[in-house]
Amino acid sequence: MQATPSAQPAPAPAASAPQTTAPQSPVLPGGPYTAREMYEAASTQRRLIRDQLANAEGEREEVARQLRQPGVEGVDKEGLEQHLRALDIRVLDLRQQLADAQLRESQAAAVPGSTTPSPEESSADRFEVVMTVGVLLTLAMGFPLVIAYARRLWKKAAVTVSMTPELDRRLDSIDRAIETTALEVERIGEGQRFVTQLLANRAMQDAAQALPPSADSRPTT
After folding, report:
1. Where are the alpha helices (DSSP H) in the chain?
2. Where does the sequence pass through the membrane (predicted)?
């Protein structure tokens, strides 16, 4: 009898490599949104909830301060206590919302490309850098020019005119001429006043002689 060959066992199927799926962003109305937009939305929501929590805690502190006043009694005290209990519930709710928002923000930040700035933001950042560098270069180049111009003005203001001997002699001669002219003008003025007074006296004498003799001075017959 011939031995029948034994059937070869079929090769086991190769184990397929585990497939990993990238986390999908939640679909929101008006989407789909990019990872960057989802991250910005989560960050904005977290900031808003944080501001609301800070306002609620500040309001609670104010109500608690009013409740500690010694003159608060009766209906006012009861109303403040109810308000304080409502604020406590509000603060606890906002704290839970803030924790959830922080979790969503961290999940959105884990998506590749979520923290990469957009082309518009990159261009705006580059523009700010260029403007800043341009202003700094302008100041660095213009400051020495301003200093040099200011020093030039200071030197020009500090320059004094040097007096030469020839200029001194001319100034002395001008002073003497002015003094002589002033004396001559004063003498001429005195002569004119004297002549005017003489003419006035002579005119008065001539007028007195020209008058007819009065009746008292006529000889009596």
Report:
1. 35-67, 74-109, 119-158, 165-210
2. 129-150
Assess contact for 136 and 80: CB atoms under 8 A: no
Q: What are the residue boundaries of the structural domains of the chain, listed by start?
A: 35-117, 167-209
Structure tokens at 153: 């003005």
C-alpha closest to that of 99 among 55, 45, 59, 58: 45
Q: What is the pTM of this model?
A: 0.42
Q: What is the pLDDT of residue 90?
A: 93
- pLDDT on residue 52: 94
- What is residue 149's three-state secondary structure? helix
Would you give the DSSP letter of residue 32? -
Residues in the chain predicted with pLDDT less than 50, given as ranges, are: 1-27, 221
Q: List all residues 6 or more positions away from 9 whose beta carbon is below 8 Å from its beta carbon.
A: none
Distance CA 148, CA 142 (A): 10
Q: What is the DSSP letter of 110?
A: T
Q: Are 112 and 35 in contact (CB under 8 A)?
A: yes
